[in-house]
Amino acid sequence: MTMTADSVDIWTEYKRTGDKRLRDRLILTYAPLVKYVAGRLGTGLPAHVDEGDLVSYGLLGLMNAIERFDPNRDIKFETYAITRIKGAIIDELRSLDWVPRSVRSRAREIERGVVELEHKLHRPPTDEEVAGHLGITEEEFQDSLAQISRSSVAALDELWTISSSGGDTVALIDTLQDPNADDPSLEMSRTEMRDSLTGAIGRLPERERTVVQLYYYEELTLREIGEVLGVTESRVSQLHTKAILRLKGKLSGSLERASADRLR
């Protein structure tokens, strides 16, 4: 959706007049972005979460983006809008609070367990080791992963607060290294979170790292990733969930240690 001369004129005139008809033209022009984001976020959500509802939530984010966007800034509208659309959908889903507390609690337990075992073993723990550490069977552990993956809202879109930058926030997906970026080294140096996440992704077990790369950068669906890896879609969902839990656990520990070092 590269801006044409006509679209630039529409933006200029809309910002000058606030004409609702021009706003509606912009909404129609960029509506496919909402469908795209809703489809991506809808992957892995419970069956009762309707994609049409996600689109409705996302349209609010698109309208907000159109209202607030400054065409004179050196940023593509699509980039700006996608962030707003994601935020609107995730905020609405969180306000519904449909994720059971027991699932949230088990996810935190797994995060902490993985971190503790990695510190002890100096390597990523196996599923059997994590299950034993939590005092559950491996089957119960796999069931927990399935429940977490079904209730997960695009975990890499979750915003993290960076204590060293005055309370700024960053989404995990925005800190992943993009091999096609103009200046990866500049992007990598922007925050401690970026550095920590890059290292954490590199230390993921190979299959989990592959799932993260294929899902977030190659934009394959879970089914397509399953075909690449030769496993079921359900298994890919579990691998994705384990990768996110590992990353969240590692990053929580890294940020806590960084904060403690600054206070010394």
CATH topology (fold) name of the largest domain: Butyryl-CoA Dehydrogenase, subunit A, domain 3
Question: Beta fraction of the residues?
Answer: under 5%
Number of helices: 12
- Which stretches of 5+ consecutive residues score pLDDT under 50? 153-157, 159-170, 175-190
- What is the share of helical residues? 55-70%
Radius of gyration using CA atoms only? 20 Å
What oligomeric state do the depicted chains represent?
single chain
CATH architecture of the largest domain: Up-down Bundle
Count of the separate structural domains: 2
**Helix/strand class:** mainly alpha
- Care to count the β-strands? 2
Question: Helices and strands in order, then pairings?
Answer:
Blueprint: H1 5-17, H2 20-42, H3 51-68, H4 77-96, H5 101-121, H6 127-134, H7 138-151, E1 159-162, E2 168-171, H8 184-188, H9 192-202, H10 206-216, H11 222-229, H12 233-263
Antiparallel strand pairs: 1-2
Helix pairs in contact: 1-2, 2-3, 2-4, 3-4, 5-6, 5-7, 5-12, 6-7, 7-12, 9-12, 10-12, 11-12
What would you note in describing this structure?
The chain is 69% helix and 3% strand. By secondary structure, the chain is mainly alpha-helical. It has a two-stranded antiparallel sheet. Helix 2 crosses helix 4 (77-96), helix 5 crosses helix 7 (138-151) and helix 11 crosses helix 12. It has helices spanning 5-17, 20-42, 51-68, 77-96, 101-121, 127-134, 138-151, 184-188, 192-202, 206-216, 222-229, 233-263, and strands at 159-162, 168-171. The model is unreliable at 153-157, 159-170 and 175-190 (pLDDT under 50). The chain folds into 2 domains: 5-96, RNA polymerase sigma factor, region 2, helix turn helix motif (Rna Polymerase Sigma Factor, Chain: A, Orthogonal Bundle), CATH 1.10.1740.10; 101-263, Butyryl-CoA Dehydrogenase, subunit A, domain 3 (Up-down Bundle), CATH 1.20.140.
